[in-house]
Amino acid sequence: MKLSALFEDQSLPPLEIHAIYTDSRKVTPGSLFIAVRGLTVDGHRFAGQAVQHGAVALLLAHPLPELKVVQIIRPQPEGLVGALCAALYQTATNGLQYIGVTGTDGKTTTTRLLAHILNHCGRVAGYIGTSGIDYPGYISHHDENTTPEAALLHQTFSRMKTAGVTQVVMEVSSHALDQHRVDGIPYQTAVFTNFARDHIDYHGSVENYYEAKLKLFRGLSPSATAVLNADDQKVLQAATATRAAVLTFGTSGQADYRGEAYQDTPDGLSFMLVCPQGTFQVSTGIHGRFNMLNCLAALACCQSLKLPLQEAVASLADFKGAPGRQEAVDLGQDFKVYSDFAHTVQGVEAVLRWVSSVPHHKLWTVVACSARRDEAKRPLIGQLVCRYSDHPVFTTDMLYDENPRQIIAEMGQGLEPDQYLTIINRFEAIRYCIDQAEPNDIIIVLGNGDYLSLPIGDKNIYYNEVELMKLCISERMARQEYRRLTPEADVPAERRDK
Hints:
UDP-N-acetylmuramoyl-L-alanine:D-glutamate ligase, about 35% helix, eleven-stranded mixed beta sheet, alpha/beta, 23 strands, Protein-Tyrosine Phosphatase, Chain A, 3 domains, Udp-n-acetylmuramoylalanyl-d-glutamate--2,6- Diaminopimelate Ligase, Chain: A, domain 1, six-stranded mixed beta sheet, globular
């Protein structure tokens, strides 16, 4: 696309633009580089590097006279990233349907449920979210953002189209909405799972966080559909902020897609779906009342996506969950181990309420609060974990440059020192619980889920928590087997010699 057409400005030179980037390290020849000013880094510092890599034009907030390429000056370049990427990669006209899922908790499971339903019903779904990017012929694991940067996001849409994808199901974070990453995406369906305090470190207040979420619904067209949680009054208020048709889900009597007769067994949850199309028995392999709501949200989308509801309901029977969400780590040990991404106050309580209902002897919970995050939630999470757990273990996660002992001290506010155990090293905390667990105990490790990296200081180290859990379980089982086969190994040396 010509630069003049991209900006709808005929005074610009007729340069051909092949790609848009906000990361100077990824720039290719013939690109437009947009200098985004973030919380800690100003993209203008890297404009020179972008030119060296082949950028033929720069979108800047102020001129950089030393760089001899076309420079377009706008007060807020970052606010134009999404719209420009959408125009260049033809996001609105490529024939894809876009489904966006936002909310404090449940985004990943709801999007995975929707992708599962779409594929079962003969569509070809592409997934974008916290767990990575997934479409036919391509799978990537978690990036640093729930919703990728605009350049990568819109490039991914183009690649998905080429791969035969028909619907894109994506998590839409409040950061992405605030930073205009998703501008220009014509969502046909948008889901609001729930709302609770989170990301105050970025947004500054609960009100700002909520307003960021509402941007998704304010941007919907009258032909789109907003799918809202009827059990959450804050979510329901989004109905007044959108021009779209509104469908609701939940357990309240007013919900269009209502869940009744909820049951949870070792095989998964079941409930009755009551909706305009009739009444359906729903069974699936995931657990917890919160996951019934995620199922209801996904099933409600079937109406706007024109999917056969009976087939959608049937497809949930073989849905086993999203990576890092209630993920069981089972190597045949006589106790249960789970990994879960829960890290908000609402999410931690929901998961602990579920796992407490599973028959068990003692509950061990490994929990941490990340550095550079909302400090006010630290004591709340600490108190929740101590309330539900027999053996709470406070550890660390995403340390960055904050003192880990200070974080744990804040988690322990209002608690007695003997109410929880502190183990700074996360791996050692997990190993300790696995070593100490007795038959029929449950260990649940919260906060990391399927992340494959762990920031410590200014470094990101590779960290696969589920694989580390498997290693610890294997070591324990190997020790037990060794002792069973070689009972003399446990006899002190001086006794063996006699």
